[in-house]
Sequence to fold (152 residues):
Amino acid sequence: MTEFSDDIPGYDDENIFAKILRGEIPCHKVYENDDFIAFMDVMPQAAGHTLVVPKAPSRNLLDADAEVLAKLMPFTQRIARAVRTAFSADGVTIMQFNEPAGGQTVFHLHVHVIPRHEGMPLKRHEGGMEKGEVLMANADKIRAALKTTPKS
Ligand code: AMP
Fold:
């Protein structure tokens, strides 16, 4: 991991995703392996909005290890396929933000995986909190779809 220069802060391990990774706060987990965890976004921009989070600490794409990035896309593809199946989606939007000016609000690298349906606009980023039971049911659907989703 590369350190940022003086004008961009480095990694702060008190960010909310670091706390989820340490098990200090809960999440609606979809899948986990040695390198990544995928869980439901609590303020989904569409039903099934999932976050892919590398376990290795980095603030965002700009300071991430190349080895992590090389594994991130195949993992994201697998989650995206399962999300598409689980929500019978017409498409999947993948988003990733870097620094506040780039739209980032949580400073641990993550990728958004959002199922899309024709003609349905995305809800606002950082909109309302979804009910826990809805997130749990959506995570269950994706977990079930993963069982039949081929690995890359
Ligand atoms: P970004 O703007 O890419 O940094 O987006 C951060 C995302 O994290 C937003 O979509 C939030 O809704 C989501 N988020 C914030 N806190 C949590 C949390 N505790 N569990 C799951 N998702 C979260």
Q: What stands out?
A: The chain has one domain: 16-146. The chain has a mean pLDDT of 94. The radius of gyration is 15 Å. The first helix runs from residue 16 to 21.
